[in-house]
Description:
By secondary structure, this protein is mainly α. The chain has helices at residues 2-23, 38-44, 51-65, 78-91, 94-97, 102-106, 115-118, 132-137, 141-147, 151-158, 167-171, 181-188, 202-232, 238-258, 263-286, 299-320.
Amino acid sequence: MRLKNGSRIIIGIVFVLLAISILQAPATAAAPNLPNNSCADCHRKLLFTSEEQRQFVDIRIKHLESGISCSIVCHEDKLNKSVASTYALWSISTHALFDVTCEKCHGGNKSAILKNDAHQGLSSINIARANTPETCGKCHESELDEFKSSQHFKKLEAGGEGPSPACITCHQAHSVKVLTASEIEDFCSNCHNRITGINPAVPKNAENALNSVNELQVEISKARSAIISAKAKGKDVTGAESDLESARTILKNVPSVWHRFNLTYFETEVQKGIADTKKAEKETAESQTTPLPTKAPGFEGIMLVSGLIAAYFLHTRRISQ
Length: 321
């Protein structure tokens, strides 16, 4: 029995030491440096890799050595652990990159130093699931406009039973994830499947729609190269440049249009952009070379002609002598 307890202690100590080595490994991304933002300053300190949190690991080792079964969660503030995880997700997000900080969604005073002062004005109303479109729409206006015309928004607004996606459903609250074409099918299948009966064809169609955006990007690059080459040859590329700009505008609006969640409309817009790029390429091939304007003789030309005439008369004079 004593041998078994000893084995458990050894295994426990090895496990904890392994956890410490993992916690001491360098982070995958450095936390953003945001001056005069007490939200970031305070919540950054709550990360589990801080020295204060590691003291709990030492406590667990001592308990294991004494044969006391111990879990680290008994000695850890669960709220702090949750907040630390939230901050870690935000710190590597696009929001962190553009200094969209805690108070933008949660409220509070980012300039206050004391915790109670910093938390004045905190509200859960803005981050309530049904209210996230309006909260996110303060910055993402065009996305909100498109989303309001979608079936997703209508279900969310109705508040009935069944799936009703909000912004955080697809993007998550703090990591602000943007789904790729390879991820979209599995994600949409959570709601759109044969079990729920909600249009199971949507996930694959959504993947194909996002893949067509990649095609548009490739075609824009090809059209741009064709225009640069035609310009170098002196061709008139005015019409081609106009078509290319039209395709670029469509590509720029893709994120907003996607939030309408009307795949037929979305695919029509993207294909229109692809058609514009192909038209631009065709125009560069068919356009005529613009002749270079004839340059009027300048001062250098007059001097050259005058020199030749003078040399001719000088030569004939020598012959006559």
